[in-house]
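Quick note —
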Amino acid sequence: MTQKTFTIGAALPVSQLEAHRDWLIEGQRDLEIQDPFRPDVLDGDWRAVAREAKRILNGHTGRLGIHGPFDGLPIMSFDPKVQNVVCERLMQGLDFAEEVGATHMVVHSPWLTLGHPFVPSSPYYKREDMIGRVHQTIGSVVKRAEQIKCALVIENIFDLHPTPWIELIKSFDSNSVRASIDVGHAFVMHRAGGAPPDAFVREAGPLLEHLHIQDTDGLSDRHWCPGDGELNWFALFDALRGLDHAPRLVLELHDYGRLRDGAEYLEQRGFVR
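Predicted structure written out below.
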């Protein structure tokens, strides 16, 4: 019986697209453009950046997404002024997404858990109130995402356990709010007492749209090439093979020069092509 394999793609800034263009287009691989998370891009001539991306990617038919703005932008703030700033920035990200034809935008999870990983599952900690703040902050962003058919994929950051993260995603009851797993983030938090990356996959199930693929030693958010750290790739892909669909898998590495090394490491083990 042939094992299910996945196509591996990449998360890259526009400045790196030319170097990896042939690999991306030959395999029609999923791609995530990183530039829109930068405030200098969003407040500058971002349309020129988008045009350059489209020029380089002529002929690319893989699924395309972007990483949305996140630095200092909490989507669970109770301060109306902060909510307005966050909404404005995410709307700018969607402007870029619409311009390039992106169908996903990464948004960072707001759960900053202190204590035991199962504590946030308790009603005592007012999880519903916290989810309500997110709706107040990004409700209009979700509506815009629905209009342009671009899914907001909420990426685990400091999430120790997948339950609050998934409950937040489900609360929108929208095909335009989906789950994103950074496997390195999950592994770091697993070492701190949280659930392992494969548990996040199984918990997300059909809601899982997207994964950032990176390796780490569990000490910090390394974004190393797969094989350089200690992540359990067998467990991760065993969970992924249990899905009825193929989420987007993109290598998100600090060293863009190691991109093919990471892909080859996973290819040699039969996980991806």
